[in-house]
Amino acid sequence: MGCCFSSEGGDESVKELAERSQITPNETAASASEMVVNLDPRHVEFISNHGLERLVQGKLFTYGELYAATGGFSDHLFLGEGGFGQVYKGMLDATGQEVAIKILNLQGNQGNKEFFTEITVLSKVHHANLVKLIGHCVDGDQRLLVYEYMPLGSLKSHLHDLSPDKKPLDWDTRIKILVGAAKGLQHLHVNADPPIINRDVKSENILLGEGYHPKLSDFGLAKLGPTGDDTHISTRVMGTLGYCAPDYLESGKLTVQSDIYSFGVVMLEVITGQKVIDDSRAKTERSIVEWAMPMINQKDFAKLADPVLNGQYHMRSLFRALIVAAMCIDRTANRRPDITLVVDALTQISESQSRRKRWSSRLQSTVASNASSAEPREDQGESS
């Protein structure tokens, strides 16, 4: 067995971790050093400043424990596959807790980079709209991450190619999901210091818990944002086709506004139900942005609503949501709103919907009550 890092119940020293793994402290340090190679230099500095054993949070798992939790990584527990690994559903024997277990693909060193990036990000920030890292394992050449299980799956799975037994998301739920996802992004951009740029905001990485509570997930491509007088960081372009900001694609200059563009694309996806890239659309409309912007500019808002909604939305709410999305996908980065403005705008949309529903409910109740009191009683009818 190799080493598994943990700080459950408090920080554990490298020596203690080594003793638990039956290898020497020097071997542990060497293994950690190898994994840090080729990370973002500022991630390396962050690890150095805080101490690896303090950063690695959550429960320590052996490979055998996670193998057992997934029934030997059984096909019927397979949840999906990302750019750098496969994800399985599991149940921990010790607690009975359901979890999601990601096995990192270490080819080309990207798996190691993603492993440490996820750990540094999820150990640095905690929020109700960010997925929780429960634990991890480093066992020989195996790198595994263990997350809380999100029972309703990804937002993407509720928007596209719905199975007959899956009910489409209603309008209120869509706005609720957008508000929560925006708050998660706000925590990364505003509360983290330096800010954290997700770099892979997309519907597949927004996971849903009970009550459609959204959480951002998959921080393997995240970068620490610019500090001081710097306006951007220069980096190799990575992300997902259709979600990447055009300015980032063209220049490699990454800013928090790159995430804002991606979130705007997610908003269009949620509002319209359209796929982000669709080869069945005309060549000039393959991307959802190219497809939607002409209709937004012409104010053909009703044409943009997801047909499965069957008109069950308030037109003003649709209009306001589309305007926010259009601002987010502005081709010029410095014209995009910051995430706090996006959160405020979406919250106002959500609250106005709640007020309308309460007013409508009271009105219906009043009408029903008045109708009931206006009906003649049987004894009154007989006496007349």
Automatic annotation (TrEMBL):
Protein name: Protein kinase domain-containing protein
GO cellular component, one term: plasma membrane
Keyword terms: ATP-binding, Cell membrane, Kinase, Membrane, Nucleotide-binding, Serine/threonine-protein kinase, Transferase
PROSITE patterns: PROTEIN_KINASE_ATP, PROTEIN_KINASE_DOM
Record CDD domains: STKc_IRAK
Taxonomic source organism: Oryza brachyantha (malo sina)
SUPFAM superfamilies the UniProt entry points to: Protein kinase-like (PK-like)
Binding residue positions for ATP: K102
Xref: PANTHER family: OS03G0283900 PROTEIN (PTHR47985:SF7), OS07G0668900 PROTEIN (PTHR47985)
Gene name of the encoded protein: LOC102712431
Feature: compositional bias, Basic and acidic residues: 375-384
Chain positions covered by the region annotation Disordered: 357-384
Compartments, as annotated in UniProt: Cell membrane
